[in-house]
Amino acid sequence: MGTIRQGAAAELWQSAIREACRNGWPELDEAQESYLVFVLLRHQRDARLLARIQALEWLDAQQQAGSARADALRDVGDRCLLVAGLFPALAKRRRVSVEYFVDLGRGAYQGVADAGRDAYAGLFARLAETYRDLVSVLRGVRGTAAASALPPVQGLLH
């Protein structure tokens, strides 16, 4: 995927991820880091992020086929990643554990991997395998001093 050079928001997210890793959170390889930045950029303006019921979206994804199914599962995995890493208090408010979001998201990424036959499948197999590390890095991002300078995700990082 290469170094991310897509503008100020991407650079801010990439810098925050790298700072979290330097501060003792799990090290990410280039593909993991790039994908995490992609997720943050894609969902930073998702006004419904915290209102979505991920289990229902996962069930809906199961009713789809082909690339539509893979895309829907990817979205569930991405959103669970953001909730578990950036908004763990949501789990408590919903009376489920953060592990619920981790397990659901990991399973969604594994579903994307199982459905594919190319590098995309390999990437998602790796992301499913290291899902907890990605969640940990996002927790580190939330706690960095730079968090106040980051683009808002749902306006809740500020």
Summarize this structure briefly.
This protein has 158 residues and is an all-alpha fold.
Question: Would you mind describing this structure in some detail?
Answer:
With 158 residues, this protein is mostly helical. It has one domain. The chain has 8 helices and no strands. It has helices at residues 8-22, 30-43, 54-62, 66-86, 88-93, 98-115, 119-129, 131-143. Mean pLDDT is 84; it is low at 1-5 and 154-158.
**How many beta-strand runs?**
0
Distance between the termini: 29 Å
Detail the poorly predicted runs: 1-5, 154-158
Beta fraction of the residues?
under 5%
Approximately how much helix is present in the residues?
A: 55-70%
Which structural class fits the helix and strand makeup?
Answer: mainly alpha
- The radius of gyration is 15 Å
Instruction: Give the tally of structural domains.
Output: 1
Tell me about the largest β-sheet: none
Number of helices: 8
Q: What's the layout of helices and strands?
A:
Elements (H helix, E strand, L loop, with lengths): L7 H15 L7 H14 L10 H9 L3 H21 L1 H6 L4 H18 L3 H11 L1 H13 L15
Helix pairs in contact: 1-2, 1-8, 3-4, 4-6, 4-8, 6-7
Key features?
158 residues; mainly alpha; single chain; disordered N terminus; 0% strand; disordered C terminus
